[in-house]
From TrEMBL:
Protein name: CILP2 protein
Cartilage intermediate layer protein 1/2 beta-sandwich domain ranges (all copies): 92-180, 356-523
Record key words, sorted: Extracellular matrix, Glycoprotein, Secreted
Domain named Cartilage intermediate layer protein 1/2 C-terminal: residues: 526-725
Domain Cartilage intermediate layer protein 1/2: 6-73
Keyword NAD: no
Residues covered by region (Disordered): 1-23
GO CC annotations, alphabetized: extracellular space
Length: 745
């Protein structure tokens, strides 16, 4: 606003959690304000263009940092805080979408599949179906098309969410398997049912009159036709994740408007002998009106085709009621429309739906739901469901789906809603972070409004239920609500979590104290501390500093060491990381990492811990390398009994050697080479720090350089082994002993 500074010199508050051995403040908190500068644009730009293409512009950022010492048990803990903000060149982090493409039915990866952005081919999937897409600048809607070169899977057109601030968002992409082709006589009339799988009544049928098949030249083909028609049936809840696009179209005003689907179908017609592609038209699409449960939808049903470049649906025609049926004994009413199939597109039976709302969702790093521990970069997905009357947990069908990435203030997801009947539409909501599913708040045995994040009586109207509400054996990673449109005359419904469609800004700017729905990360046995604060979910929060844990914001290298512990319980293991060989950082702390060991299901009295350490290598100025001095110390009465022979030989061949006289710890100068599982060291480089860590941990658990496991194999690929006694001392005494030990120990 006029007269206001766009970048105030005084930093905004930003809290980091200190280690548990540090004292709490007067309010009982162990959080320390390190400050932050909002990455907001500054007015004006560079005085003279550089002539090197698009200008970076000027943004608010860190101008000066100060090193402070926080008194903790038996020592001072260094922490760098933002002292002053100012305008400078904007960070231009790469914006990426990463993920994996698999078949929806078998999980088989799409190997070397083609990837298109618009009409442009941008790459291939890898052998395991993995992909990375760099989002072009100024992209508002990222539409990617995945094509199976072997033509076994139906093309998938996906609208992929991404984080505009930079970094990578992880997406699992599912592709439908093509239905086995049936042979048809092109000279006769044929009918192909739509949605008859699983013993269900078909949603409709595709009627192909005699002579409907055409070669691309326009010549009629009357020979044998191999016809494959793959139907995406919304009555099958498992098909939602494999459906293409985000079910939207552009209306006459250019506004993106949602659709509610009754089924999609992909057609592939080929000559029986040569396999050459055929066109068809005009053909008739007949839809059983009895499958439309909302009477008002009968008058609005249309036939659509998907534009694979824009990801938007385009109207092909209107479906109009037609009495009777093709056979006299049929007394059903059909909605009938005509269609010409000139290119291989996905077709859709849809109605535009204007009863829309937004649902506010936040993600947290743990079950405490502290406002300053919100997670950014989480992909929240919402599937609209049409409930079965009287059976809210058994939906009749899904209608559409949306995905949004959380920012600093959560996410607002579009959803169908109804003001007259609260349960007219329900929504199933999930959250993932780097491929990891987050947990929703429990709804049984007793619903706690304070934990869910929504006050009564509105919570009761929403009918909140976690996915394990009726069966504790089910996963806890989703919740279902009635999307009850808020009553503007009811003060209890004016504060979220559901907002009317015209209140998007109110939803996006809602304070954390307003009603919202929650997910959280199940990770109580891990702690991370960086001397130079950095939010891994926001690449723009990176600060160039010699003590930064991640020296390069364009590429993140995660390093882990595997520790085997022989003892009757689980143990906390800490890595202490200080400068080892660089003259600017020698002896100075980079950060701490704590990780609790996980029991090996196959070995008694044995557990393993995958502990992160700061990789050796160049610091942020790319001038000299630093071999981080890493100390690995298990909690309790433990003594080192073995060191991996290959790792010991490598360290002895790359001096200097760290002092390892203290048998309660293991120390090394971090290797500069990306050693593998044979050494007990696991290194992964990625543009997404969380994803790099997730992959490295999975490989560490498995004990291999290319595998992935959630089950600990403690004896596989281990670097160092400790033997621990049954009764460890308290955590405080462990940390006191660690912090009071000399740096070289």
């Amino acid at each position: 606003a006029q007269g206001q500074q766009s970048c105030r010199a005084e930093p905004e508050p930003s809290l980091v959690e200190l280690p548990s051995e540090c004292p709490q403040d007067a309010s009982g908190s162990r959080y320390y304000n390190v400050g932050r500068c909002p990455a907001s644009p500054c007015p004006g730009g560079p005085a003279e263009p550089s002539g090197c293409g698009e200008e970076a512009g000027r943004c608010c950022g860190v101008r000066r940092m100060e090193l402070r010492q926080v008194p903790c048990a038996a020592g001072l803990l260094p922490v760098k805080v933002v002292a002053e903000c100012g305008c400078g060149p904007c960070a231009q982090p790469r914006v990426l979408v990463q993920g994996r493409v698999t078949a929806a039915d078998t999980g088989e990866p799409l190997r070397f599949g083609h990837i298109f952005l618009g009409g442009r081919k941008v790459g291939f999937t890898g052998y395991q179906g993995s992909f990375t897409i760099e989002v072009p600048p100024d992209t508002r809607r990222l539409v990617a098309r995945f094509v199976d070169g072997q033509q076994r899977l139906v093309d998938a057109v996906k609208v992929l969410p991404f984080d505009r601030r930079g970094g990578a968002v992880y997406q699992e992409v599912k592709m439908l398997r093509k239905k086995e082709p049936v042979e048809l006589d092109g000279g006769r009339s044929n009918a192909i049912p739509l949605g008859e799988a699983g013993g269900r009544e078909p949603v409709g049928e595709l009627v192909l009159p005699a002579g409907a098949f055409l070669r691309p030249s326009g010549e009629v083909f009357n020979g044998t036709v191999k016809a494959s028609v793959t139907f995406v049936d919304p009555r099958d809840m498992g098909t939602a994740s494999a459906a293409s696009s985000d079910l939207s179209f552009a209306n006459a005003e250019g506004e993106i408007v949602p659709l509610r689907t009754y089924g999609m179908f992909a057609v592939d017609f080929r000559e029986g002998d040569s396999g050459a592609a055929l066109q068809a038209g005009p053909v008739q699409v007949r839809m059983d009106a009895g499958q439309v449960w909302m009477p008002e939808h009968l008058q609005k049903m249309k036939l659509w085709s998907l534009n694979p470049e824009s990801g938007l649906w385009e109207e092909e025609g209107v479906l109009r009621p037609a009495g009777g049926g093709r056979r006299k004994r049929e007394e059903r009413t059909f909605l009938v429309g005509n269609l010409e199939i000139r290119e291989r597109r996905l077709f859709n039976l849809d109605v535009p739906e204007d009863r829309r709302c937004f649902v506010k969702v936040r993600a947290y790093s743990n079950e405490k739901f502290n406002p300053y521990e919100q997670l950014e970069g989480v992909v929240i997905s919402l599937i609209n469901l049409e409930p079965q009357p009287g059976f809210p947990s058994n939906p009749r069908a899904w209608g559409r789906f949306d995905s949004v990435v959380t920012g600093a203030n959560g996410a607002c997801l579009p959803a169908f809603c109804d003001g007259r009947r609260p349960d007219a539409y329900t929504a199933l909501v999930t959250a993932t972070l780097g491929g990891e599913e987050l947990e929703a708040v429990a709804s049984s045995p007793k619903l706690n409004p304070n934990a869910v994040g929504v006050a009564q009586p509105y919570l009761g109207k929403l009918g909140y239920r976690r996915s394990d509400h009726d069966d504790p054996a089910l996963k806890k990673t989703a919740f279902q609500i009635n999307v009850a449109k808020p009553d503007p005359n009811n003060v209890d419904e004016s504060n979220g979590p559901v907002y009317s469609y015209r209140s998007l800004r109110e939803c996006e700017e809602a304070p954390v104290s307003a009603n919202h729905l929650r997910f959280y990360r199940v990770e109580v046995d891990k702690y991370e501390y960086n001397v130079v604060p950095f939010k891994e979910s926001d690449v723009t929060s990176w600060t160039g500093d010699y003590l930064a844990w991640w020296p390069n914001p364009q590429e993140f290298r995660a390093c882990y060491i595997k520790v085997q512990l022989e003892g009757p319980q689980e143990y906390m293991v800490r890595s202490r990381n200080v400068g080892g060989s660089h003259p600017r950082t020698r002896g100075q702390l980079y950060g701490l990492r704590d990780s609790r060991s996980v029991r090996d299901p196959l070995l008694t009295d044995t557990s393993g811990a995958c502990v992160e350490f700061k990789c050796g290598g160049m610091l942020f100025d790319q001038g000299l390398v630093d071999r981080t001095l890493v100390s690995i110390v298990p909690q309790g009465s433990c003594r080192r009994t073995a060191i991996n022979g290959l790792l010991r030989d490598y360290l002895s061949r790359h001096p200097p050697l760290a002092d390892n006289n203290h048998t309660a710890a293991f120390s090394m100068l971090a290797p500069l080479d990306p050693l593998g599982h044979n050494y007990g060291i696991y290194t992964v480089t990625d543009q997404n720090p969380r994803l790099a860590k997730e992959i490295a941990i999975g490989r560490c658990f498995a004990g291999t350089s290319d595998g992935f496991s959630r089950e600990m194999r403690a004896a596989e690929g281990t670097a160092v082994t400790f033997s621990c006694q049954e009764r460890p001392p308290g955590r405080e005494s462990f940390f006191q002993r660690l912090l009071s030990a000399p740096a070289e120990a």
